[in-house]
Amino acid sequence: MVNAWVRDVVSGEVFQALGNPVGYSGSLTEEEGQLNLDITSTAGTPAYRTSGFKDLFAQTGSPGTGNNNYVNNLYTAAPAASGTGWTFTSSDGLVKKTFTLGVGSSLFSSSYTIDPSISELFVRFGLSPNLNDLLLNGQTNLGTVNNSTAGEFSVVNGTPARSVRSFVKYGGTGYNAALNAAALDQSGGFNTVNMRNQAQTHQVEVYGPAQ
């Protein structure tokens, strides 16, 4: 998911809540870097953008052991078995994810099926609540994160005129994922707020086991 918008049902106004298409992509192909860090290493290149449902790291053994092969992987698409939504399968067949957006629903939902050879899959989201205001005012109106609600992470960009909230639900009934509160988007030495090192973006990372 490279972009997402929300609509104020009262005023009819539309606000971007995820993605930053005007930001520097870092490559001519606009593929996203594998690291989400401000350094270049043999493990990959730094990312200047983070989309939604970015399969950042597949852990295959002890923590830190694995690969980032799924960041720019070419997934195949097919109608979901349920008849609603789409199922995307990685080129090696080890990761399958089904996305649905029901009629009248306010949630864009995903369900992952991961091969047992991957012990845990780490997935990132680049939240940009009210991108227009972020472009004009930077992080001035971007509030602190809220993960006090069980199984939900959110961040609000609030101005005197309106507040726009971007959120990710990862826990609770029907969910089997957790928030990675230790996630980083910088290697050290920067004065930026952690997970806000990319332009007009607050990143959040969740992870789940093979199932």
List the helices and strands and how they pair.
Blueprint: E1 4-7, E2 14-18, E3 54-59, E4 66-67, E5 76-79, E6 86-89, E7 95-100, E8 109-114, E9 120-127, H1 131-137, E10 152-158, E11 163-169, E12 178-179, E13 202-209
Antiparallel strand pairs: 1-2, 3-4, 3-9, 5-6, 6-7, 7-8, 9-13, 10-11, 12-13
Mean pLDDT: 90
Gyration radius, in Å: 17 Å
Class by SSE composition: mainly beta
- Largest sheet, spatial ordering of strands: 4-3-9-13-12
Strand content: 25-35%
The count of DSSP E runs of length 2 or more, i.e. the number of strands, is 13
- The backbone outline, from C-alpha atoms, is globular
User: How helical, in percent, are the residues?
Assistant: under 10%
Count of helical segments? 1
Terminal Cα span: 22 Å
Taking the sheet with the most strands, its summary is:
5 strands, antiparallel
Element pattern in H and E? EEEEEEEEEHEEEE
Q: How many independent structural domains?
A: 1
> Which ranges are low-confidence, i.e. pLDDT below 50, for 5 or more consecutive residues?
none
